Amino acid sequence: MIEPAIWKWGLFNLFIVLLLVFDLGVLNRKSHEVSLKEALGWSAFWITLALLFGGGVWHYGGHAKALEFFTGYVIEYSLSVDNIFVFILIFGYFSVNPVHRHKVLFWGILGALVMRGLMILVGVSLIHRFEWIIYIFGAFLVFTGIRMLFQNEDSKVDPTKNILVRLLRKIMPVTDEYHGSRFFVKMDGRRFATPLLVVLLVIETTDLIFATDSIPAILAISRDPFIVYTSNVFAILGLRSLYFAVAGIIDLFCYLKYVLSVILTFVGIKMLLSHTIYKIPTGWALLVIVGLLTGAIIASLLWPLEEKKEVDL
To answer: Using 50, 70 and 90 to split pLDDT, how confident is the model at 179?
Structure first.
């Protein structure tokens, strides 16, 4: 007889695979430029799906587990916005046709699901085996939050220094021009990679770098691998539509760097205080994070920054 935990993991992953197959094989068989209206619609769909799943967690696992899921989801989703700004820079740097960006993000997110799943399992295992490592994660998040506050935005992405891109160019020739939405093309009997594959590798490695911040952040909220994994998955699934939505309303996030810096520092402090009498309850953490994000958007609307960098969308 199969244990309930295995059924739980198996059914969830089967559901996600079916969603992805339906997305790529039915809804987006043909490459097209995603409009703001379509992006907002899909963002609403993924958020609703996450809320429904969280409701299921509440029903079957209780309010404590549900709070962990919702708090982890909000943290991951808010940190995903920072990823999006970098994705915008990457697409602009490589002059990727907006028609093909959806496909790159689809495969990039699929790879992110696998990589983050492995990182979560390792992280949870380390905390369960070596309890003291939680203080290392906490200190790392505080350091990352403070560093983010003073980090130059232009220094975040330099595709020419990407290790995987340089390795790809050594093992396989890369064409000078794009070939539609194809990652590989055969010419004169030789297989070539296209610049679109280079873009995909940069997206993947960039997400992996961001995961070093987001995974410890969610481990400050929950140590249940299923809660950590599912909240990550729903945040990542909504990342693609969120990219196209944010690209259309980018001015709403001019204070993003500052609020994410505060969120990471706050979550790091929560982790450092987890074994003291000053332990921060998950419910309060959720309220603080939602309040910070809401305040940042309101501040962006009321007091937009005068100096805005032009970004190639």
So the answer is: confident
d(CA 131, CA 21): 39
Q: Does residue 276 sit within a domain? A: yes
In a domain, 212, yes or no: yes
**Cα–Cα distance list, 251 to 43, 78, 85, 301, 309 (Å):** 18, 16, 12, 8, 10
Residue 313 lies in a domain: no
CA distance 60 to 221: 19
Per-residue pLDDT at 69: 93
- Residue 159 is predicted with a pLDDT of 60
Range of the domain at 264: 36-302
Residue 289, sorted as left (phi over 0), alpha (psi -120 to 50) or beta, turns out to be alpha
Q: What is the DSSP string of 151-189?
A: --GGGS--GGG-HHHHHHHHHS-B-SS--TT-SEEEETT
Please check the confidence at residue 113 and state whether its pLDDT lies above 50: yes
| Eight-class DSSP state of 279 | P
Flag whether 145 is in a domain.
yes
What is the rounded CA–CA span in Å between residue 46 and residue 122?
Answer: 27
**Domains of the chain: total:** 1
pLDDT of residue 313: 45
**pLDDT greater than 90 at residue 116:** no
Phi, psi for residue 187 in degrees, rounded to 5: -140, 130
- pTM for the full predicted model: 0.76
